[in-house]
Amino acid sequence: MDVPWAIHTFEQSVWHVTPIAQVAVIGTLIVRRVIWEFKIFALYLTVDILRSIVVWWLGGSTSTPAYRTAWVATEPVYLCLQVLVVLEFYRLLYLAYPGIQAFARALLAVAVAVALAVTFGTLQLDIGRVVWKVPDMQRLFVAKRLISSLMGFLMFTTMVFFPRAPSARNILWHGWLLTALFVAAAGGFFGINYGIASQWAGAFFMTVQLGCFVFWSLEFRAPSVKAPAPSPQATARMERWNRDFMLLAKWLVN
Prior knowledge:
Elements: H1 3-31, H2 39-58, H3 65-96, H4 101-127, H5 135-161, H6 169-194, H7 199-219, H8 232-253
């Protein structure tokens, strides 16, 4: 069996299936009647779907010059939308937890500090090894890695420390899936910049991102659908975790 060919075929299959999963997510947002709540996220998905269609029409493969040209032309818009998606998430998080703004601001300061420290603390590891053969594209690789790392670790720190509540189920799923999506993108572009990107790694990170879209399409619920009541043991455990997380976050701030 030709293993490189098999991995390449799998990677191309994931690349072609991903827009279908993104369409399913938009369909779920519409059917569950939360499309306006997550309108920036829906726009982000729509732009990515349209970009995939354009790339298919131009070249149909990630290895063609047409793909590279389309990617370079559209990636700045895509990166801006990533940031807007995260800002939308924080707006929804504030709305889901009324009265928690003071704690949320402190937590956001901690999350920003962690994201900046991790991102810029590791940036030289891969940037220092870049061989600038295609500068325009490679600058965007660096920007993609930078923004994805910042957004991913910002989201991760927020999700670890933020209190859990069954009423905020959609928001919590959204936050964890955004975390996985951005961290996977950061990992993939770290490998490209560092020079260790392999077909296995590319296929893995693309599959993680596809899995995120599948979970989004399955887990979003309509506002009228109540989350199942947790058991008394789960409730006590959740409250204990929330207290511990809040104490730790306040200790870090102070």
